[in-house]
Design a protein that fits this description.
Structural class: mainly beta
Strand order of the largest sheet: 1-2-3-6-5-4
Mean pLDDT: 89
Order of helices and strands: EEEEEEEEHEEEEEEH
Number of strands: 14
Shape: elongated
Largest sheet: 6 strands, antiparallel, barrel
Number of helices: 2
Low-confidence stretches: none
Distance between the termini: 38 Å
Helix content: 10-25%
């Protein structure tokens, strides 16, 4: 197995935490991001230690799968890993596949529950199309919205998604629509926003991740 892992190097990764989002009664995967030093023990046996933030180690006892982010020759890869054993400060893992998966997306996606980002309204042509909308997916280039006003929008529409709790609004072009759990899920490409989106995502991510870690005890 030839993996682009260097012994003693620190890598970033993510572990997905299952969350139940009360407002729309749906399950959501929240990505807790971490970093750790990898040591090569055998051909497909690796040790991850010096994990930061350290409290995240307890989640590996519940979720035995995680992803490491690798780079080789300017190409990004995702290595799917399986936890085999865990101690107080380190874990032993194996790669699930013989080769990592090339990452095609340019920007990482983050998934939130409705309460994390607050309530939104959807506007089109300066008219309110729906109130109480929920932003559940956010990246540097795209937005995912749960819309309770089914049938009010279509693919190709240009809309503004505006937060009712703080000064945050995003203009998007709808690229896809789908119905699930009695609601409309729409995704779009961000064309304009009124603030630094990266800073906004980081601020919200830190707040939610700290809450998840603290609630886990």
């Amino acid at each position: 197995m030839n993996l682009p892992l260097s012994d003693g190097k620190r890598y970033s990764g993510e572990i997905k935490i299952k969350r139940f989002c009360e407002k729309y009664g749906i399950d959501m995967d929240f990505s807790l991001v971490f970093s750790g030093i990898v040591n090569i023990s055998d051909e497909n046996v690796f040790i991850l230690h010096s994990i930061n933030p350290s409290p995240i180690l307890k989640f590996f006892k519940k979720e035995n799968r995680f992803t490491l982010f690798l780079n080789s020759d300017t190409t990004a890869y995702n290595l799917k890993a399986l936890v085999k054993d865990i101690s107080e400060r380190k874990l032993i893992f194996q790669a699930e596949e013989p080769t990592p998966i090339e990452e095609k997306r340019r920007f990482h996606r983050f998934y939130f529950c409705c309460k994390d980002l607050g309530s939104f309204i959807i506007e089109k042509d300066d008219r309110i199309m729906c109130e109480g909308a929920c932003v559940f997916e956010l990246s540097r280039s795209g937005l995912g919205v749960i819309n309770s006003c089914i049938g009010s929008l279509k693919v190709g529409d240009r809309i503004t998604v505006k937060n009712t709790d703080e000064d945050f609004k995003v203009e998007i072009e709808i690229l896809h629509l789908g119905k699930r759990e009695g609601y409309e899920f729409l995704g779009g490409k961000i064309t304009k926003t009124n603030l630094n989106l990266i800073n906004y995502i980081i601020r919200k991510y830190i707040k939610v991740s700290e809450k998840i870690i603290n609630e886990a005890g």
